[in-house]
Design goal:
rod-shaped, 9-stranded mixed sheet
Length: about 325
């Protein structure tokens, strides 16, 4: 028998005042209870109980040990209840990693809504372009934007897809002209967004012919954060790819214009990664479910707005059916 089990039996014996009553309460035999006390005394090398055929009492050491056992077993019961409760009720700190742009433009607003639903969950969000070592760095969930994931032992859930479009400032286009084909890009200054899953030196398009544009000129500026590239584009440095969520505010207020609106760069999937399918903590489970519920709706709303802005740029009527791409 284990020490914890023997401690529980010892407490029952003291509280009931009898080996027989303790055995009945625990659905054990009286010899089993007697053996548990003997094992404890042998391990501790001290007598815990004075017992005769008619009477049982605690020794001085037994009294002190009984008080400690009550405290220890109370802590164990509390810890087990909290651990079991974690499978049912979202509670405690949830450590999330997210890629920078997606985290800033999607995760933060959605986390605010998640906490309205689950206020007992405390969020610690880290935004970074790299994919972390989740176990080593202690993350519960990682939200990754990528074409596909490398093989790993982690569980992944695809929760949507997003894409990138080409943008420039009105000042740049008025000076350099508006490209009307992918070939025209060779006559323009092309800025680079450098990301782990974004090929360097070429742009892969989902367009009329699923074309690839390969840069023939050196770029004068490259950066690994889309929000920084946005500033460079607004300053008139050239044409560059921006995630839709980063580009939208500028397209709305006119500080950006979409370039080649019939094209978009190939979509990237959005994945939620976590450690295991077994015994998933309630805060992790509810957060993943919340993302699966809300991210597609947010992306669909964004896509509708991009379609309207694109059609306005191309001069399509609202009923024009040519809307196969955003």
């Amino acid at each position: 028998m284990g020490t914890i089990e023997n401690m529980r039996i010892f407490v029952r014996v003291v509280e009931s005042g009898s080996f027989t009553k303790a055995a009945m309460q625990a659905s054990l035999t009286t010899p089993h209870v007697s053996r548990a006390i003997t094992e404890l005394e042998s391990r501790l090398r001290t007598r815990l109980l004075n017992r005769t055929t008619r009477h049982m009492s605690l020794t001085a050491a037994g009294g002190r040990y009984f008080q400690r056992c009550e405290q220890i077993l109370s802590y164990i019961d509390q810890a087990e209840a909290e651990a079991a409760n974690a499978q049912a009720n979202p509670y405690g700190r949830l450590r999330i990693h997210g890629t920078t742009s997606f985290g800033q433009h999607y995760l933060v607003p959605l986390i605010a809504r998640y906490r309205q639903r689950f206020p007992d969950v405390l969020i610690e969000l880290t935004l970074a372009q790299r994919v972390p070592d989740m176990i080593e760095e202690g993350f519960d969930v990682s939200i990754v934007v990528a074409t596909e994931l490398a093989d790993s032992a982690f569980v992944s859930q695809r929760i949507g897809a997003t894409y990138t479009i080409l943008c420039a400032s009105p000042r740049y286009l008025s000076t350099r002209g508006v490209p009307t084909s992918l070939d025209d890009l060779n006559n323009h200054t092309c800025l680079q967004l450098v990301l782990p899953d974004f090929p360097s030196g070429e742009w892969l398009f989902d367009g009329p012919d699923s074309d690839v544009f390969r840069h023939t000129r050196l770029t004068p500026f490259q950066v690994n954060v889309a929000e920084a590239l946005l500033v460079a584009i607004r300053e008139g440095m050239g044409i560059g790819p921006l995630p839709v969520s980063v580009a939208l505010p500028g397209l709305r207020d006119g500080t950006l214009e979409r370039v080649l609106p019939q094209y978009r760069l190939r979509a990237n999937n959005i994945y939620a990664l976590y450690a295991s399918r077994q015994y998933v903590d309630a805060k992790i489970k509810t957060f993943i479910e919340f993302l699966r519920e809300t991210v597609p709706l947010a992306l669909a709303k964004q896509d509708r707005e991009i379609v309207l802005l694109r059609d306005k740029t191309l001069g399509y009527g609202s009923s024009n059916p040519k809307k196969s791409l955003c």
